[in-house]
Amino acid sequence: MTTKAANTTENGLCRNCGADIPARARRCDSCSSPRTIFHPELRTLSIAHLDCDAFYASVEKRDDPSLRDKPVIVGGGRRGVVSAACYIARIKGVHSAMPMFKALKLCPDATVIRPDMDKYVRVGRQIRELMREVSPLVEPLSVDEAFLDLSGTERLHRASPAVALIRLTNRIEREIGVTASVGLSYNKFLAKLASDLDKPRGFAIIGEAEALEFLDSQPVSRIWGVGKALRRKLTSDGLHTIGQLRSVDEKRLITRYGSMGNRLARFSRGEDSRKVTPHSLPKNVSNETTFFEDIADPAELSRRLWPLCEKVSGRMKARDLSGRTVTLKLKTSKFQTLTRSQALPDPTQLAETLFRTAEVLVTRAIDGAPKGSAFRLIGVGLSNLSDGQEADPPDLADPDAAHRKRIEQVMDEVRGKLGSDAISKGRGLKPGTRNANS
Amino acid sequence: MKLTIERATLLKALAHVQSVVERRNTIPILANVLLDGQEGALTLTATDMDLAITETVPAEIGQAGATTAPAHTLYDIVRKLPDGAQVEIETDASAAQLLIRAGRSKFNLATLPVEDFPTMSGGDLPNTFSLEAEELRTLVDRTRFAVSTEETRYYLNGIYLHAAEDEGINMLRAVATDGHRLARVQLSMPSGGEGMPGVIVPRKAIGELRKLIDETTDPVEISMSDTRIRMTFDDAVLTSKLIDGTFPDYERVIPTGNDKVLSVDRGTFAQAVDRVSTISSEKSRAIKLAVGNGLLTLSATSAENGSATEELEVSFAHDLIEIGFNSRYLLDITAQIESDGAEFVFADASSPTIVRDGGDMSALYVLMPMRV
């Protein structure tokens, strides 16, 4: 129905060279490749989801060819779970998010590699650049997957979206050295489902004609936004498949499941009006903590601020984001909330820059509180977000900025290898406490 | 006080001093200009407590005396008087009103006592030297575009004037930066300036100073301490507080290893940048330079507008380099380059680039590339 083996009554495409193939042909005339795809809507669908196959593991295999035919698990480090497993390891039943000890029990001969996020982000960026050459409408979902809207690009590529996508995945294989799978459909929801159907190195299509038939048997958890809790609720209401969901009246779904009900109804009918938006960045990234005992001392507040800055910065780095506005929040013991914000000259993702800016705001916020206030909560956040590539450019007015950035990168590398407690800055500590403990 | 003055003379003097006065003032006396008529001359003074300009112009004094009146109102009145008018200005007996008469027009303005007008004491200004107006103009024009408006880094909100040594010669240097670009201009240290402190002259003072330079050809006398600067023109004196901060150690950000020299014709280059940047997005103003094989290709793309390219023949003897810049910064710098040729000295696509003014080594610009 959907994949390469499907409808062979239509003209198809060669997934190796992108050439047209007559109906029912088993191989491509031009390059004799057997990798073909046939679908009646092949030339009209334009919303795609592209997902790299076992991305972290593939990157590691690319960088160390001796691992090519061996099971590779990327993971461990802080939480001791599998971040990615190559397809060889998956045969043994290893999958991501599985605890490492369990994975190694299933696949004892696996090579375990600690994740090198910096590297994956770098490779992910290169892939994203290639995607952007195909269409400006690229909406990244993570380092290695994105939605692409190729509507109206036929004249630019002198080819249909399907051909442009075939060329793109081939180019990713050739230039980056990892494989990717594509799902092509008429909206984001179905494109994402499709990309999962033919992995790895796949190309799957869900057309308008067969969308409902396909959805009928899919579990409700396939719907974006249906997590554990909602799935349990739906199951207890007797709704297991998307087909069952469609048979329920939309009004009933809304009464029962609130605003989510509307989405359930629409998705069950294969409708998804969400656009592919290139910059669907979060509005802000922040972190806060409530103290056991209220704090009035500014120095102590600064000490509590530092780990929060590190957390926010860590999340910014992991999601490849940068932010230009620093916001500090304090809550007094009488539950009065004070916030102070400061715009930076350039976007940052560094804990150091965040802390230096937020520390000044602590003083300003205290000035705004009633005299003698003690505080029960402190929070810090970054907003006005943009791409991580714009973070912390060299600053002609701050000769030490590059040095501070380098220090933080080195600290991040050490932590990536040895765990988050391996190295830290002195400011997170209370004077005298460290030695007493260690 | 009673005096008669030519409208044009008064207008010019008022134009200089009134721009010091902030439009919105919480302290009423700061909205006023001090008028002091003595011995054939009228002296006008305005201040915002950080900056003061005093200008003396010839006037026919009937009765010596002084008062203060709202600067902007007075300026608007004089501006609207007919060309060539003789303006009579006098205070009434109680000195509470200022009477202005020209032809058949008559105005009464409320005054405030002279004693309330703040004086900006020059204090002791131990370092004094003088510069040709043209030299001062060069220092200011070639650096002021790079002055930052960022409030948190207030020490960047002015031009850093200081003594420096270049190849054994004492120099007077002006430097400004906003973090993205830096301008450094120098000339031989005038006599008397050797022991000067490094001072940051605030942006507002620079703006007013620039207007005064345009109207003089005589040398300007500059005196300073480490908190104040005074510039004396033929009939005007500008006194300003200095920015109390430390200018960054800019020498460390000026690259020394850049070796890929691109020479362009300044005019042709600036026009091409201007044309291609029409397409650049309003936010980033980014433009890409690709240089190699004797050809410079300028290009810009934006999701909203489309794309543009333009090619220039250039001399460049290195491997292809692709580098992006903010087009406005490129135009700001090329506008200050006085010779026909501009030189870009690159290291790579992500490192600061040096821009030189043809053979003129007195000016040096540093420009941060941007991602394109």
Structure in words:
- Chain A is an alpha+beta fold and 438 residues long.
- Chain A has 16 helices and 15 strands.
- Chain A has a five-stranded mixed beta sheet.
- The relative contact order of chain A is 0.09.
- Chain B has six helices and 25 strands.
- Chain B has an eight-stranded antiparallel beta sheet with strand order 6-2-3-4-17-16-15-10.
- Chain B starts with a strand and ends in a 5-residue tail after the last strand.
- The mean pLDDT of chain B is 91.
- The interface between A and B is medium-sized, with 14 and 23 residues.
Architecture blueprint of SSEs:
The complex is a heterodimer of chains A (438) and B (372).
Chain A: E1 12-14, E2 20-21, E3 36-38, E4 47-52, H1 55-63, E5 72-76, E6 81-85, H2 87-91, H3 100-106, E7 111-113, H4 117-134, E8 138-142, E9 145-149, H5 154-157, H6 161-176, E10 180-185, H7 188-195, E11 203-205, H8 211-216, H9 228-236, H10 242-246, H11 250-257, H12 259-268, E12 284-295, H13 298-318, E13 321-332, E14 337-348, H14 351-368, E15 375-387, H15 401-418, H16 433-437
Parallel strand pairs in A: 5-7, 10-11
Antiparallel strand pairs in A: 1-2, 1-3, 4-9, 4-10, 5-6, 8-9, 12-15, 13-14, 13-15
Helix pairs in contact in A: 4-6, 11-12, 13-14
Chain B: E1 2-6, H1 7-18, E2 32-38, E3 41-47, E4 51-58, E5 60-63, E6 65-70, H2 71-80, E7 86-91, E8 97-102, E9 105-110, E10 127-131, H3 133-144, E11 158-166, E12 169-177, E13 181-188, E14 199-202, H4 203-214, E15 220-224, E16 228-232, E17 236-241, E18 260-265, H5 266-276, E19 286-292, E20 295-302, E21 306-313, E22 321-326, H6 327-336, E23 341-346, E24 353-357, E25 360-367
Antiparallel strand pairs in B: 1-5, 1-7, 2-3, 2-6, 3-4, 4-17, 7-8, 8-9, 10-15, 11-12, 11-14, 12-13, 13-25, 15-16, 16-17, 18-23, 19-20, 19-22, 20-21, 23-24, 24-25
